[in-house]
């Protein structure tokens, strides 16, 4: 059983390699009657696309989405929504250097071992290009579950860390800076740092924080499909993610119960939100928030020793146009996966009581 | 769609409330011919059971497992393995104080909101007692996937943190101390600390580290069912877990690519293991390791203000016999969920190539 | 992936061999708040149990169901419903004659080939005893989907065939005769015939017709999970079933479109019902009806030549207490599977439109 | 949960309406290393396409398949295979007559009821055009599971019925006549009859028989996913199918056990094959054979009374280019669904024993 489908009621199946003719997906389970604005989907895709600023990869890919089915007269019909993004930039590259060799901390080696061979052009299926399909589906999910609001942003780049990110209330600056950090001063610092890293021929990791507001009480399906557990899987399935924590997270492990417990107000809200909006795997109506850690991009513009598929040591030169730091462009991907999770649990929750 | 089934090829479906007649589960997909030792299962269950030491809950529950099907002449038959643990300690309790009121940072409130009512006795389905079924199934999974070795241990209790837990090579002390910490000095400190916390009528969180050795290359199913993504879901589905990180984890987000990349040896192993044994969602043959953060147990032996189901403020007294720190008893649960994930991916991987 | 789970939103997972300690199942996805009467479940089980009349097997099995979880204060809680039926009659049998030999038209041979060995006692997992768990779950499904009414009955035994079974409107006699045929004269003929077949040491096949009334418009999920397609799978999964047809069925293949089309009344009902209540895989509000063909029971009280597990010819004598005709006891099983299908589609349909 | 995915290990998800931009699908779970010949796929599609002979619809659709992913250097890569067939004939039609009215025995009415509205152009998702995607996937499945041979053919058109179709051994004439009947004389009769039916402005039903040879012992997953049960679902999910029977089928219900039982030869084959190649839901190595009943096409070239979406009676004239008899073009669809089922069970069976 392969793993290219996400969700149980609102499901996304994706396909496509970075350098094949096209990538895309099929959404099954979107209820009928949801207004679907294709411009809104394209805007989300544009937030993810290469070449959008000086601190991301300078590849040119328009990433234009086409809807093949499931939408009629501007609304979902209840039938599967097939969509496609044609690859337009995949022709002229030279992949000789990675065809027979394994880039360090890339998936080349394990794909060859698992499948016997691989589409070596640009990473093939293991390329983060696959996440474009997730952004398309996530945008449709967002349109389904409005008025839930999902906002992600960069809260750390390397050691530059925004304090108390879950407490930020003004998101207006996020889309106005290339880092997608909500704080002006920190955004400038991060941008400068990323440029330095790029100049060094290196890359750096970072952290994205995501907040979901207006989530109704009741989403999440114990015991295995707890809301935060599926959110965790969703985030960890994004390329380069190394960790996930929600609410108090790893810091909560240090606390005592008397300090950690969230006491109730009379309306069922809580005075604090160490729970991160989830109790026992079910949303409790408070803001859901979580952090996602990304490793530094593995492709660096430096020469590295590695091995080829005969097990011999070779030297590999860094080539191509790659992101020095993945988190700015990963912000819409984190939002998209969050939307997919919340859409799925919204539909699954309809069966909770008679 | 409810969420009480885990896995796709080796699946576990669990049922049962903490104070009903019994809890148990059904494993479907265990291949035929696996020797199943019921004593081994019982030994794993004993590692999880209450009353095993002075620093855990003093409830008495024998937690005796019975196999109803799927095992014949000491081997799995390929048919579903039904098993049960009868509840023997559920009769005489008084639950008046939680029937109509909502314990802070417990699931009482959200269950009432989602389902309309709940089995309020001892937490019902949201009780960690449910994890006993996971330990049974995990033990069977371990027997299926030997010679993979899975070892979890406590690496932090509150602020007491074992440095470099993934580097520990001697596991012999883990089962010889009630904390399940592999380091003698640290184990003693942690034990003393937990006793103090209990004396204070309080609880404290902690971290469990888990290492899986001898994992073959090739386990994990991109793109959504990456090995670490499903491990993350598995861990986050355990009661009280707040965070998951694998390999370099959150610390990896701070590093540069040149420092983070794992360079290859000629045999395909890597010189470092920031990847935590997983590349692109697929095991690469190195040790898999990860950390799991647990919040402090929500039930404290102190009075707290809370609300009842009419939304009125009430004072709730701490009652009953609860763990002051959940991590010692959670060690076998973390191992069990790891085994379930690896067993499932082992079977799923059989179809990777012709 | 094994196949012991049925349904997608209302799911039943069964376990158990005919001669192990117990058989049972887990229902996941039953919404909270459904009144569950255990006596009603037991009554359905009694319709299936052995020894109920002179024309069925004379084995004695009380088939008493116990509910382990998911029901509290007489209502479903939304958590999984675990249930069990202990086997009480499995001790003293002698299975020497089938341990090493393969009964003709039984599953002995294919189980040995597929799994390497088998629980040979009384058919193990391939025994129709497994359907007891389906009847339990089906009864709970019926309680969920009332006011849908499901009625099955015997419409043929061997060559004795009830004409126009879907037109029968009086079901009152069905439970008043051991054959479960709604027509008094035909029931008597069938009963006499079955007794003669038994006296001959032989068995005979038959047909069950099932009608579901008060089904709302909209159940069924194109394109693969059409209502009649999943009903077909459900029926064909019952032991001994060889064919399924709905509405006009095989007879419809002979007709012309001008004769077969169901013309509409102004209220959306149709003047005829060749569609059998299903159009394009979705219920149209008319009665659903279908026929299920059962082969003759393979165990006959005659000696047959067969082979043993070394491939040598042996003579096998008919032994034990078996049904001369399976259809009377299969009536509640057909109803149960119908209820499972309709319950599942009822829950799945809640997401059809916003 | 929608129902546009078929299979569990080798899965096909389809999308597309008859008159949208394109239809297609995604296959997930095809192992790596399978040689995939796109010409072979196109040849199968050509067997299904409109306009291929004088007795089928005269619409012109080239039905050209494009592969978007999952195939590299002529072999499957183990990643999802995305494919598409662009609709090229969908522009100029006039659908006013069906936009607001419900064609008798079509899915128009139930789609409107279930989803609130529908893509009314040419049947939308309920059009048999959707099966083109199944034929593509089925062809890939056939390439995976060779040397299994699957052959379907027309065994009845209206009352013209081929006797003993499962006994036919010469398949050479099937693709040499437009009816796809293996018998020359009967094929000519059927062709003449279909032409007469068309001249009458009418349609007629029929039966397809399918035989699978060289199927290994062991395919099928009891208890719910018995081989014949999933085959039944697969066939019943094809547009216009009303019934399914395998082996002795409905005729077997008339027999006595002493006549019906298949006695073994010493090599494990059986002297007769009333079982149709399946015992207890598992293939036994004998030929699998089954019959599929198709109703007459609902669109007739005659005026019919029907209702519009306000519930008022209207007269509808037959329009367009439709098949007078669906079975000739359904032959490759039956084969495709058979291949999907056998491919899925082949992969699922790898887990049967250690």
Textual characterization of the structure:
4 copies of one chain form a homotetramer. Chain A is 27% helix and 21% strand. With 354 residues, chain A is an alpha+beta fold. Chain A has one domain (5-351): Chorismate synthase AroC (Chorismate synthase, AroC fold), CATH 3.60.150.10. In chain A, the strands form 5 sheets. Chain A has a 5-stranded antiparallel β-sheet with strand order 1-2-3-7-4, with helices on one face. In chain A, strands 10-9-11-15-12 form a 5-stranded antiparallel β-sheet. A 3-stranded antiparallel β-sheet of chain A has the order 8-16-17. Chain A is globular and about 65 Å long. The model of chain A has no long low-confidence stretch (mean pLDDT 95). Chains in contact: A-B, A-C, A-D, B-C, B-D, C-D. At the C-D interface, strand 1, helix 3, helix 6, strand 12 and helix 7 of C face strand 1, helix 3, helix 6, strand 12 and helix 7 of D.
Shape of chain A: globular
Number of strands of chain A: 17
- CATH topology (level 3) name of chain A: Chorismate synthase, AroC fold
| Biggest sheet layout of chain A | 5 strands, antiparallel
* The CATH class of chain A: Alpha Beta
Keywords for this entry:
alpha+beta, Chorismate synthase, AroC fold, five-stranded antiparallel sheet, 354 residues, 9 helices, 21% strand, homotetramer
């Amino acid at each position: 059983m392969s793993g290219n489908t996400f969700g149980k009621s609102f499901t996304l199946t994706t396909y496509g390699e970075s350098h094949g003719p096209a990538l895309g997906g099929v959404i099954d389970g979107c209820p009928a009657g949801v207004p679907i604005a294709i411009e809104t989907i394209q805007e989300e895709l544009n937030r993810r696309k290469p070449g959008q600023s000086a601190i991301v990869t300078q590849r040119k890919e328009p990433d234009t989405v086409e809807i093949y089915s499931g939408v009629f007269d501007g609304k979902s019909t209840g039938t599967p929504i097939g969509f496609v993004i044609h690859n337009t930039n995949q022709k002229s590259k030279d992949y000789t250097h990675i065809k027979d060799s394994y880039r360090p901390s890339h998936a080349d080696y394990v794909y060859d071992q698992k499948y016997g061979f691989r589409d070596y052009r640009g990473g093939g299926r293991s390329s983060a290009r696959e996440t474009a399909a997730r952004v398309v589906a996530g945008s449709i999910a967002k349109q389904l579950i409005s008025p839930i609001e999902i906002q992600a942003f960069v809260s750390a780049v390397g050691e530059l860390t925004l304090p108390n990110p879950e407490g930020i209330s003004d998101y207006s600056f996020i889309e106005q800076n290339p880092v997608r950090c909500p704080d002006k001063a920190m955004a400038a610092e991060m941008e400068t740092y990323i440029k330095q890293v790029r100049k060094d021929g290196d890359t750096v990791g970072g952290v994205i924080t995501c907040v979901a507001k207006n989530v109704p009480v009741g989403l999440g399906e114990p015991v295995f499909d707890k809301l935060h557990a599926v959110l965790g899987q969703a985030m960890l399935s994004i390329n380069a993610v190394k960790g996930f924590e929600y609410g108090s997270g790893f810091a909560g492990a240090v606390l005592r119960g008397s300090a950690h417990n969230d006491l109730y107000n009379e309306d069922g809200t809580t005075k604090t939100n160490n729970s991160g909006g989830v109790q026992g795997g079910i949303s409790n109506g408070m803001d859901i928030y979580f952090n996602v850690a990304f490793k530094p991009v593995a492709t660096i513009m430096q020469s590295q020793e590695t091995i080829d598929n005969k097990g011999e040591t070779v030297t590999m030169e860094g080539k191509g146009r790659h992101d020095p730091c993945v988190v700015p462009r990963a912000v819409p991907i984190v939002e998209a996966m969050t939307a997919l999770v919340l859409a799925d649990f919204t539909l699954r929750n309809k069966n909770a009581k008679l």
